[in-house]
Design a protein that fits this description.
Elements (H helix, E strand, L loop, with lengths): L3 H5 L2 H8 L4 E6 L4 E4 L3 H5 L3 H4 L12 H10 L4 E10 L2 E14 L2 E10 L1 H23 L3 E6 L4 E4 L1 H7 L19 H15 L7 E6 L5 E12 L5 E10 L1 H23 L3 E5 L5 E4 L1 H7 L3 H4 L13 H12 L4 E9 L5 E12 L5 E10 H11 L1
Antiparallel strand pairs: 1-2, 1-5, 3-4, 4-5, 6-7, 6-10, 8-9, 9-10, 11-12, 11-15, 13-14, 14-15
Amino acid sequence: MNNPNEVTDSKRFKEIINGIEEAVILSYLDGTIFFTNKSCEPVFGLTEKDLIGKKVSSLSDEKTLQVIESRALKGSSGSKFEYSINKKGETKWVSHSWNILGVNHEQIIVNIIRDITSQVLIHEKLKESEEKYRKIFDLSPEVIILINNKGKVLEINKRTEEWIGYAPEEIIGKSILSLEFIPMESKTLILENFGKRILGKEVEPYEIEFITKNKERKIGRINGTTIKDEKFNTIHDLVMISDVTEIKKKEEELRKTKEIYENVFENANDLIQRCDEKGNLIEVNSKWSEVLGYSKEEAKKMNLMQIIEKPHVNECMNKFSEVMKGKKVSGIKTVFISKKGKKIELEVNAAPLYDRNKKIISTLGIFREINQEKEKKFKLF
C-alpha cells in the first residue's frame, strides 16, 4: 500500500471510522479531502461524494478554516477551533481538531469535527439570561449583596454604592465583619442570622443600622436567601436590603404625635368620646368614665343613644348625622344620664374624623359640663 487511499479502502478501517460519532475528514496537506465518514453528512449536509475533492477550507465562509489549513500545511496540529457553517440556510456550530499523520510515507491531515450547536445555543441563552438578570440586579431599587458561605462579599449592585457611598472595590472581597458601614451592634445581629441561614434555618426579615460614608445614619430591612449547589450544599447567601430610613422617621413622628394626642385625650378636663358611623362608642377618656361612672371597657359595648336623656335623643342624633356627613357642630346643649342615673348637662363640640382616603370613619365629641360651670359661678357669688 503506497497510497493513503489504500488504507481508507480497507473494510475494517471503514467500519471503525463510520462508528465514530464525530465527523471525520481525511485530507492531504493542501487541504484536499479524500475520505469522509458517515457522520459528515448530518453536520455539513453533504454526502461523501459531494465532499471528496473539495478543500476543507470551503466548508465554511469563516477564516478559521483557512487558519487551520495554513497551520496544517506547516505540519502543526490543533484542537477545539470553533466556527459556524451554513447548512441549507441553517447555522451550525462545530469544534474542529486535527492531527498530522504519516501514512505510507505520506503525511495526511486527520480532521475531527464535532457538532456543538446545542452547547452554543445553551451558552447564548445563558449569556442572554445572565445579561437580563445583571440588568435587573443593577437596576434594582434594593441594595443586593452576594456573600459566600464564609462571609466574604462576592458581588454588589449599583444601588449599594448609591445608598451607602462606598465603591465596589471597597466592599467586594471583604468579610462582612470588616465592613466599615456596619456598626458592631448590627454586625452581631447579621452574623447571628447569617449563621442560621447557612445552616438552613428560616430567618424573618429584620432591621439594622448602617452608617454611610458621609456619616449619615440609615436603617435597612434585611431579607436574605441561600443559594445551593447541585448537591444542595449552601454556597452563597443573597441579601437584599430595603431602605426604610424615611419610613422609620415617619413612624417615629407618628408615635410622637400619637403620644401627644393620647396625653391630651387622657388628661383633658372635658369628656371626650369617639363614635363609629352607627353611634357605637369606640373610645372614651378618663374624664368621661369618671363623670358617667362607666369603665372604658363598658363604654366600648355601648351606643350613644343609651346615655342621652330621651328628650334630647332626636336632636343629638340629627346633629350626629350632620357630623357624619362632614359638618362640624359646636355649642350644642344636651344631657347624658350617668350609670347611677344622674343627669349631666353638657355643651358639645363635634367633628368628623377621616381615614387616609378622606373617608369619614368616626366622630370626635368633646363635652363640657354645664353643671360644673354653674357650680363655679354660684360659688363666686
